[in-house]
Amino acid sequence: MRPAAALVSRYAAVVCDLDGVVYRGPTAVPHAVEALRALDVPVLYATNNASRAPGDVAAHLRELGLPCAPELVATSSQAGAWLMTQRMPAGTSVLAVGGPGVATALEEAGLTVLRPDAGAGHTVSAVLQGYGPSVTASDLAEAAYAVQAGATWVATNTDATLPTDRGMAPGNGSLVAAVERAVGRGPDVVAGKPAPPLYLLCAERLDIPAGRVLAVGDRLDTDIEGAVAAGMDSLFVLTGVDDLYACLEAPASRRPTWVAPDLRALATDPDAGPASLVRLAAAVRAVHAARDAGAPSSELARLTERVQSLLGDVTPG
Ligand SMILES: [Mg+2]
């Protein structure tokens, strides 16, 4: 049983990142599945990965032991399609560049999908560009032609790299940059983190104001910056890409509300004990304040040691 005063009790819902928080590749992050199963507030899973459809992501989560329906997964493709429905009438013709998740999100949002292999002679009002492992140079060319012809250009996300088990692959940000080189400008809108639309789509789907939602993530430059931009509190966990030191050096736009070793923090009473999440968060804020004030390195080292010590003690046995 989690204590009544658990961290998660301070919020009406949780929006959780996936890679580096719930799983790493095919494997679950230790403690993540148990921690999420035990929550009694709604949880949505928000991923910048635009190539997989929500149903595939939900199936992966169920394989890991986490009950999950496709409606509980929000992708940056869906956020991109959602943005378009706010700006364009139903049935608007949109060029879908990327994996199957991009076209599916557009169709489900009531937009008319044109695929890049339809060739010349078609007019689209917008382009939704997301990652897909099979995106070709001619797909990117079709995106560039449409943008030059005046189409609104929405990128699902601009992550430059995509970590794989063989190293870094070019992510959607690199594919967007290729189109940008051709057309001489960047996308009109980005849907995924750190831009706010993906988180705002989650808040709308939950029907809960952003200020009452806790965003959980492992990356400061996407998950945490996106939470700050969307007006959500955030929990930064140390199970993925960024480490404690990156957090201590983060600029104001990327500073989390809470820091914890892993998702077990959600069930922890933030006030309990001498090494509590509240004290840890305060110690992290002290480092940020000292940095902002240009404190000497000896002072920063002392404050950093305090954070390290609290982090070591806040970890459940
Ligand atoms: Mg992540």
Automatic annotation (TrEMBL):
Gene3D superfamilies: HAD superfamily/HAD-like
Keywords in alphabetical order: Hydrolase
A GO molecular function held by the record: hydrolase activity
Superkingdom of origin organism: Bacteria
Family: Belongs to the HAD-like hydrolase superfamily.
Protein name as annotated: HAD-IIA family hydrolase
Lineage: Bacteria, Bacillati, Actinomycetota, Actinomycetes, Micrococcales
